[in-house]
Amino acid sequence: MSLIKKRIADGINLNYIETDKFKTGSLSINFIAPLDSSSAAKNALIPNILMRGSKKYPNMAEINKKLDYLYASSLSARNMKRGEMQIFGLGAGMIDSAYAMNGEDIIAEVTDFVGEILFNPITNGNAFDTAYTESEKSNLIDAIKAKINNKTYYARQRCIQEMCKNERFGLDETGTVDDVTACTAENLFAHYKTALETYPVEIFFVGKCDIDALGEKLAEMFAKTNRKPIAIPKTEVIRSCDKPKTITEDMPVNQGKLTIGFRSGITLGDDDYPALMMFNEVFGGGVTSKLFMNVREKMSLCYYCASAPDATKGLLTVASGIEVDKRDIAEKAIFDQLEAVRAGDLTDEEITSARMGLVNNYRELTDSARGLETWYLGRALAGLSDTPDDVIEALSKVTRDDIVAAAKKASLDTVYFLNGTLKGATKNA
Amino acid sequence: MLNVTTKKSEFLKEEYYTYKHNSGLDVYVFQKKLSTSYALFATRYGSIDSKFKLEGDKDFTVVPDGIAHYLEHKLFENPNGEDTFTRYARYGANANAYTGNTMTAYLFSCTSNFKESLEILLDFVSTPYFTPETVEKEQGIIAQEIRMYDDHPSRKLYQMMLEALYEKHNVRINVAGTVESISHITADILYECYRVFYNLSNMMLIVCGDVSIDEVNEVCDKVLKEQAPANIIRDYPEEKAEVYQSRIECEMQVSKPLFAIGIKDVDIPDDPMERMKKSAAMDILNDVLFGKSGEFYNKLYEEGIISGSLDVGYGICKSYANNSIFGEGTDPDEVFERFKACVNDAKKTGLDREDFERSKRALYAAMIRWFDSTEDIANNFLQFKLDDGDLLDYADAIASVTYEDATVLLDATYKDEYYTLAIVKPLRTEGEQ
User: Which pLDDT does position A425 carry in this prediction?
Assistant: First the structure.
């Protein structure tokens, strides 16, 4: 496996992750925007509107028929938040041309198709198609409202919204219902033009292809745009919190959801990032962590209790689903385990197991196109170029003291509890 | 010398080796040059197996709902008090397990120390150990797992659909059971279930990765003892062809109604290859009728009746089969009416031949994507093998489906008396009717 980076236009990179591990290839075009309330909803909507139809493939049925014809290739809109950046665009998956029945160059055909969808939307003067726009606005509003359906995810999202109320990170990558409502076919089309001209773009291809040919094709597609890329502001990182808060919200569900948000004080490029990963792993990263072994296995309080870092923003969250009347016990149990790590109460075996588990995860990610792309996109956004092997190497040097130091840096910001109010939920167990 | 058989697919450019280990266990090795090796140790025992005996036993044993899943949790304990996850962690492996309607599978993935991890897998699954105390302790954990799923709208919807489709068949039982049913589980019943279903003749080992058959065999030799095969007699209730209830609904904290259209199918071929062929034909037919390129889906989407995608699927095994269409939208009844209209139109005018060919070709090509991860290969392989089919034959099954096959299925499968509509509605706020 190797990574080749090519600049194909001003502020546009093609990242080629060359590997013959897979029978498939994947291509993605990622626009990098500042996460901002004035543009989040627009950026989220644009790929969805593009996916409704182009001049050559004017509706979804035609788009999907073309994908069927291209040996069941896939095309999807993407939109995500990485730190205080919003990444949106299109992703395509295809089988290797070696499997084509009539010798077609599947990669080239899929790339042309992605170009058609991206650059030739159906327009009405200086606007997107009104019906498509209104329909996708309505779908996005539905999706925003539907976040309440998954209670685990919802509780974590609410915790982060409360923690980062006064930071851009508190914004969702979809914008709000009001932001979406304010979008029009005209202002979206204007923003689409702006996005093509000004947002940095990271393109990825994972698999095996003729990189020069792909680079030329993509350069040609972007040649029509008048590129003047903007600089993307850095993610604001608040490294500690002196006034922790507690928020409780009622909802008619069975199970209570406890989410605890910390400022980890450590981000991706920091020297102690490997120590943060080790701290998270021993604390609540997996099935041999202190949270799993104690809060679940010893105390039988829950089915899941796990911690996860967001190293782009410097956060660490702990999440668990419990009986509502066990809230205080569970909260105390979680903090007890954190204190144990801070006190250095870690066996050699806990440390070795954590390291081996992480090493295994980093090695496994190189076996999936998505894993590889997520890794290198994350690195590109953070201005880093280290490989999974580099992090594996760095992990081998993390000591017990480093783990303790990382644990001590974590400072409590917000305890969020989704209080289940359904009858029966408060029974004495 | 091991008596190894090789199975190949020219189209997929894939192959695997299989043999029966001396212990009686069927072993499958899928060589793949990836960093991650993946192993599955599985038994043909799931939530539907609630009444059973071994050949020679006098009476049937009837067990509480959710016990197969409970047993899966409890096997992770070891006689020396050590947790299985801790054992794996010493070698860096990622371990897990899952229970379904017809199977329980224990698995790990790793990028080094494969043999050590495989030894742990075979050892802990073949060494049951529970006491009344450790069984009791698990109740709190599984109760929270059940309550988590109770709050999960799409899980709940799937469960409701099965409960409406089937009157007696055990597939209507929740895999994890209920908080009440698991309170009746004891160490003794767990041991009895283990004795019957964890006989090696009822199990299989699937390994996928950069691993040789000799390495696998060496570990099997070390851990597994020869075992007399067991003949398990499972007693499943008779199930009628028509649905139990044609409609079922509940209210939950959701933003918009979620719906499932379930289509019951009791016409299950005895021959495994015929079942695979039926499955392939149904996948093609469903793609023609309800797929992303078709009119049914696109009209619903364009008119805003559904938001997002429809999840359409057919599942078939020896014991039960059904089609399902899952989605989200303001008016599930309208979707249901259009579904019926779509089927009736197709019956009247016949399936479009070009659509049939396009769907068939797309499904055939899509199979190539199943072979890029050791995890996907092992799990897909298991699903086919559990039902005596073969993953590598599925491409051939797709290729063998004719237009006439799809037409026959359309007429036989899609009938009013086989349909149910399940809906999860948003909670009514106070004051509303």
Answer: 43
